[in-house]
Amino acid sequence: MPSESRLTIDNSPPVGFHYRLAVLTWGGKFIDGYTLGVLTIALAVLPSDFGMTSFYSGLVGAAALFGLFLGSLFIGPLADRIGRRRLYTADLALFLVASLAQLFVQDALQLFAVRLVLGVAIGIDYAVGPTYLSEMLPKKLRGPLLGGLSAVWRFGFLASIVVGYFMSGLGPDAWKWILVTSAIPTAVVMALRLGSPESPRWLVQQGRYGEADAIVKKYINPEAGVDDLVEAHESGTARRSNWAAMKALFSPRWRSRTFYAGFFWIAQATPQTAIFTFLPSLFVALGLAGGLTPTLIQNAFFAFGGIVGMVVVNRISRRGLLISTFWMMAVSVAALAILPQPGAVVVVTCLCVYAFIEAVAGNLQFVYPSELFPTSIRAAGVGMAAALSRIGAAVGTFLFPILLASFGVQALMAGTVCLLVLGAVISQKMAPETGGRSLEESAAEEDRSPRAAQPEPN
């Protein structure tokens, strides 16, 4: 382990570049959240002659999530082969084209196809954005700034609800104009990302030590270097074949971390994505007329929870935050599973509390997976975790309107409670602690016991 007196990426003082890069990466997550959230209002104002049955509603709602699965699964390993920088910009070009294409769709199948492509672009950003940012940040900033990705995602989701709310009265084609608004932030962020440097950690993995050192000195600190990364690479502790990344993830050494990274994300994202996609319909099913207004209120709690999550992510151990929030989320929606006809106050309170806690917990979705894997398979690992999470989210979103129509809201809420309790139990058994360590330490070759001594949060 390098001496703390030697300046490295992990222990260098924060500089403007760190925050600028965080803002550019946050911009991608704002777009991700906006693109997924904007469908919530668009589905609610679709004209009756569009042919959006429960089946097609679930299919279109899940389309971006299926695409996200494909993008995360296949582009993650590509980023470990060709680098982070090119995909960091290219994914937004795909975003922009697909966003504009929504203006021309004529039926549910066409909308499904375009939303699928949008999901692929989101999947690329899920795999590359957190990986790239984590490899540039010192460890004291990694928790809050990576956690900020989740908070900004929630603000993107909230912004789309607000925009859709005020555009919903534009006539029978309002849904198209609501959807296409995602092109605006996409164009802005894409332009700002041009010229971003390559990840020094990735360059070291390729043996390009001089380039890596020059980037660190130019962008982070003239006195900093990559000697610690070079030593780790040449000693073999960080060396890994890029072509074997997917195989490595499921090797005996890494498969438990691969499974857990995907599982905790599934347990968090499946109910959250399904509930928020069809929130107006859910509120109506729970007896609240005019589902758009309570939808806006709950999304405000969702965004506020993201900010609180940024503050607490480095003050609580990663493992403790995961376990406690799973239990709190389960309790928050339990009343909706037990009470046959909950009143408006109970409904809004339960779902707002759930939204707040989920947002706090969700900050770890972009922090934790990046800390579980070494540089040689980090993008593949983050991409795999995101892809696995989208399986549950896509299935949950597809089935939500069908199950709601067939079994009612109580059964759906009971299933949500069961999944959250399972998340708490599995986390208790499997979640390793990664807080307060360098990336090399947190992704060490040796498996660490979940109950190992935990470092003080930094």
Automatic annotation (TrEMBL):
<dbReference type="InterPro" id="IPR005828">
    <property type="entry name" value="MFS_sugar_transport-like"/>
</dbReference>
<dbReference type="InterPro" id="IPR020846">
    <property type="entry name" value="MFS_dom"/>
</dbReference>
<protein>
    <submittedName>
        <fullName>MFS transporter</fullName>
    </submittedName>
</protein>
<dbReference type="InterPro" id="IPR036259">
    <property type="entry name" value="MFS_trans_sf"/>
</dbReference>
<feature type="transmembrane region" description="Helical">
    <location>
        <begin position="263"/>
        <end position="290"/>
    </location>
</feature>
<feature type="transmembrane region" description="Helical">
    <location>
        <begin position="409"/>
        <end position="427"/>
    </location>
</feature>
<feature type="transmembrane region" description="Helical">
    <location>
        <begin position="296"/>
        <end position="313"/>
    </location>
</feature>
<feature type="transmembrane region" description="Helical">
    <location>
        <begin position="174"/>
        <end position="192"/>
    </location>
</feature>
<feature type="transmembrane region" description="Helical">
    <location>
        <begin position="111"/>
        <end position="133"/>
    </location>
</feature>
<feature type="domain" description="Major facilitator superfamily (MFS) profile">
    <location>
        <begin position="21"/>
        <end position="435"/>
    </location>
</feature>
<comment type="similarity">
    <text>Belongs to the major facilitator superfamily. Sugar transporter (TC 2.A.1.1) family.</text>
</comment>
<dbReference type="InterPro" id="IPR005829">
    <property type="entry name" value="Sugar_transporter_CS"/>
</dbReference>
<keyword id="KW-0472">Membrane</keyword>
<feature type="transmembrane region" description="Helical">
    <location>
        <begin position="55"/>
        <end position="75"/>
    </location>
</feature>
<feature type="transmembrane region" description="Helical">
    <location>
        <begin position="145"/>
        <end position="168"/>
    </location>
</feature>
<dbReference type="Pfam" id="PF00083">
    <property type="entry name" value="Sugar_tr"/>
</dbReference>
<dbReference type="InterPro" id="IPR050360">
    <property type="entry name" value="MFS_Sugar_Transporters"/>
</dbReference>
<feature type="transmembrane region" description="Helical">
    <location>
        <begin position="345"/>
        <end position="368"/>
    </location>
</feature>
<feature type="transmembrane region" description="Helical">
    <location>
        <begin position="380"/>
        <end position="403"/>
    </location>
</feature>
<feature type="transmembrane region" description="Helical">
    <location>
        <begin position="21"/>
        <end position="43"/>
    </location>
</feature>
<keyword id="KW-0812">Transmembrane</keyword>
<dbReference type="InterPro" id="IPR003663">
    <property type="entry name" value="Sugar/inositol_transpt"/>
</dbReference>
<feature type="region of interest" description="Disordered">
    <location>
        <begin position="432"/>
        <end position="458"/>
    </location>
</feature>
<keyword id="KW-1133">Transmembrane helix</keyword>
<feature type="transmembrane region" description="Helical">
    <location>
        <begin position="320"/>
        <end position="339"/>
    </location>
</feature>
<feature type="transmembrane region" description="Helical">
    <location>
        <begin position="87"/>
        <end position="105"/>
    </location>
</feature>
